[in-house]
Structure formats: C-alpha cells, structure tokens
Design brief:
Layout: E1 2-7, E2 10-15, H1 22-30, H2 36-50, H3 53-68, H4 76-87
Antiparallel strand pairs: 1-2
Length: about 90
C-alpha cells in the first residue's frame, strides 16, 4: 500500500509492505506529531515567504493540522517559548 499526502509544497509518501491499509496509516498519522525542530524548520521556510512571524506560524500550524489532525502548539506564544528554548540550547 502506498499513500501520498500533499499539502502545499510538502509531499509525504508512506509505503507499507505488510498489508496495512490506508485507514490504519491515517490513524497513526492523526495520533502523531512532528518534532519541535522540524516544526521550527518549516516555520522558517514559511517565514521567508510570509515575512510576518505570526503568519508563518499560522501556515505551519495549518500544515500540521492537515497532516496530523491537531495543532502542535496551543498558541503563537506557546510556540515562541518552545522556539526560544530550542535556540538557547
């Protein structure tokens, strides 16, 4: 089974060889999340296009919700704190 998900400029291809169905893949995706580092990376990619931090964050959250079914962060403020913690490592 091969499942392709496209959202804007991001394309995900999931291939399973063990008889898994697309419904099972969607269930796994919806209960998952991307890492903080990857979220920040995507945010900076969007920031080069948007030029406004909140807009770039909103696009990144929309992408995350479209793929995983839920937001990564509760608010822009929560994201800024996570990003600050990451940058200060």
């Amino acid at each position: 089974m091969k499942l392709e998900i496209s959202t804007g400029s991001v394309k995900w291809t999931i291939e399973a060889t063990d008889g898994i169905t697309s419904d099972q893949v969607i269930t796994v995706i919806n209960s998952a999340s991307i890492s903080r580092e990857k979220f920040i990376e995507i945010y900076y990619d969007f920031l080069t296009q948007e030029k406004i931090a909140v807009k770039a964050y909103e696009r990144t959250e929309t992408l995350h919700k479209n793929i995983f079914g839920a937001p990564k962060y509760s608010s822009y403020s929560s994201f800024r704190n996570a990003k600050s913690d990451h940058m200060n490592k």
